C-alpha cells in the first residue's frame, strides 16, 4: 500500500516541487528578494501532493497564504510579537479569510501563515512587504500550473454523479423493500438515508459548476464544456429526484404504518430502483 501511495503521489509531488523551485527562482532572480521564503511555501501549499488541482481549490489556498502574510505583517508592525499577539493575529487573519470566501482551506492557510509571520523575524524572510510579494509570486506560479496543466475536470464530477445516483437508487430500493414487506422501518430508513445523502448532491452541483468554469479557461479541456454543462444540469435533476424520493418515503411510512396493502406498489417502485441503478 505504501508503494501504491507513492506511485499515485509521484506526479503531483514532482509538479508541486518544480513549481516551488520556479517560485523561488522568480522571487529571487526576477523580483530580487535574497531570501524569498514564502514564494516556494505558497506554491507548494497551493498545489500540494494530491492530484486534485482544481483551479478554485488552488486559488483558495494561494489567497489564504497571501491574506495571512499580509494581515499578519500589518498587525505585527503595529502590536509586535508575543503569545497574545499570536492569538490576536491568528483570529484576525482567519476571520478576514472567512469574510473573503466560504472555503475552509482559505481560512486555514491564512491562519497558519499568520502564525509563521509572527514567529519569523522580518529580517530573515525579506521584510514585511517582501514576504507578501513572495507569497503572491508563489500563488501566481501555482495558479499558472493549475491553469496550464490541469487535471481532467470531468473526473471528479463523474465520480460525484455516480455516488449521488447510487444513493438515489439505494433509497428507492429500500422503499420497494418496505412496500413489499409492509415494514415501516424500511421506509423510515429510506427517509433517513435520503436526508443523509443531501451533501453529496450539493457537492455534485457545486463541483460541476466549478469544473465547467475551469474547462472554459483551460485550452486543453475547453472542448469538454458541453459535457460539464450537461452534468451540471443533471445534478439539479438528481436533486429533485432525491427530494421526490424523500416525499415518497414519508408517505410510505404513514401508509405502511396504517396497515394498507402496498404489495402491488412494490413492483413499480422496484422497477424505478432498477432503472436508477442503470443510470448510475
UniProtKB/TrEMBL annotation:
Which residues are in the Integral membrane bound transporter domain? 23-145
**TM spans (from-to):** 9-27, 33-51, 58-76, 82-100
In the UniProt record, does the keyword Transmembrane helix occur?
Answer: yes
Provide this UniProt record's keywords sorted from A to Z.
Membrane, Transmembrane, Transmembrane helix
Give the membrane topology, semicolon-separated if more than one.
Answer: Multi-pass membrane protein
Q: Where in the cell is it found?
A: Membrane
Principal localization reads membrane
This entry carries the following GO cellular component terms, namely:
membrane
This one is known as: Integral membrane bound transporter domain-containing protein
Lineage start: Bacteria, Bacillati, Actinomycetota, Actinomycetes, Micrococcales
